[in-house]
Amino acid sequence: MDDRPTGWRTRVPRERARPRWVRESPVSWRLAVLTVCFGGFMSQLDASIVTLTYPSLEREFGERLAAVQWVSLVYMLVTAAVLVAVGHVSDVVGRKLVYLHGFGLFALSSAACSLAPDLTALVCFRAVQALGAAMLAGNSVALVSLVAPREKLRTALGMQAGGQALGLAAGPTLGGVLVSTVGWRWVFWINVPVGVLATLLGRYLLPRTVERAGGTRFDLRGTAWLAVASAALLGGVSVFSGTPLPGWSGMVLLAVSAAASWGFARREAHAPEPLVPLSLLGDRRIGWGLVGALAGYLVLFGPLVLVPLVLTRHGESEMRAGLLLGALPAAFALASNLQEHLLPRRWNGRRRALTGAALSMAGLMGLAFACPADRWLICWLAVLGLGLGLFTPSNNETLMRAVPRRLSGTGGGMVNTARALGTALGIAVVTLTLELGDGRGAGSVLPPLPVLTLAAAAALAGASTVLAG
Length: 469
Hints:
Blueprint: H1 20-23, H2 28-49, H3 54-61, H4 65-68, H5 70-93, H6 95-114, H7 119-147, H8 153-181, H9 186-189, H10 191-205, H11 220-239, H12 247-270, H13 278-282, H14 284-313, H15 318-325, H16 327-342, H17 349-368, H18 377-402, H19 408-436, H20 448-468
Helix pairs in contact: 2-7, 2-8, 2-10, 5-6, 5-7, 5-11, 5-19, 6-7, 6-10, 7-8, 7-19, 8-16, 8-18, 11-12, 11-19, 14-15, 14-18, 14-19, 14-20, 16-18, 17-18, 17-20, 18-20, 19-20
Protein name: MFS transporter
Subcellular location: Cell membrane
Membrane topology: Multi-pass membrane protein
């Protein structure tokens, strides 16, 4: 029986089933989750790796840094703008279908980026690449939550979150190696064979969509309002994180975001087939879960940016700073994948998330009193990573259990949008507080002001767990 909704039947190809040996394997869900982690790792790796190409792009194209930074900015803005819409489309036409087409688009646009004749073309190709990345990221949480057994959902979501965090953290290191050896174009070329391989893996390892959202009409006006609200909010935050735009433009963008958010809420309240049913946000588990996702990634990416900056200002080499900082994403990945063995099995998700938030605050406070040469520095970074690795999958599990299965793509897109905003806020907090002070903080690794801000975000993450419970 064809379970696709009327109206999409003749325009959407049918998803292919997995081979029987995959479907019947006891580890089939793990293979599917690993495939999703692969996509999450690559899309986030590409978001962070490009910053290492800036000097080469300035030299080759003869452009200023203010223009070159749009290579990263357009990627971030497009991704944030379309994540929820992509998740909604995947709920209707099929999550596997959108995911595989996303990898194909990501690989093709990467090849185009590597052949770009000038900066304008590169920025345009990056916008297309961001759409492919959104098709991956917007489906990642949904695919994991649908394929994993109920009792393994927290572990599966931990694997997915760890893969994304490792991709973002590994970007600068890998980018530096590629740019310094074979040139900036290989930063994009490397995605092509990876995209082909991932598409093949997804074809055989990802399950078909069983439950789809109903409806035959796409909420184009709602999508436009949400895209403007998300992109303007992220753009406004980016102004305060070093984007070469005047400060007043940040306030204008934030005002535009607020107005577009109001327009989106009015549209969704009256739309016959809304992009995001407001009943989802009315569920406190979902609403506060999104707050927790935002706060968690703010806490994660604040130190990822701040610690290397302050260490190098204290005279440490970039290599040592990178090696020390590796303890944070490594501990995050370890805790998110092995938390069932690190904490009592009888603990529920709420208790695990609270423990993670408390450990995150402890790690931040430890960093506040550690000097660059302190051997405990790496330990405090690891404590912070462990805390976030315990909090993130537990928070996402609570949220995704509250989302109807037929709307899992929409829910996953909302989670990743919250993460993107949290990432931008973390960078903005770091940049703004360093501009306000001298960045040293009486010999500590982290100046007092950002520590207090990040600790407040960790407390907010813990509070969201209590309120969602």
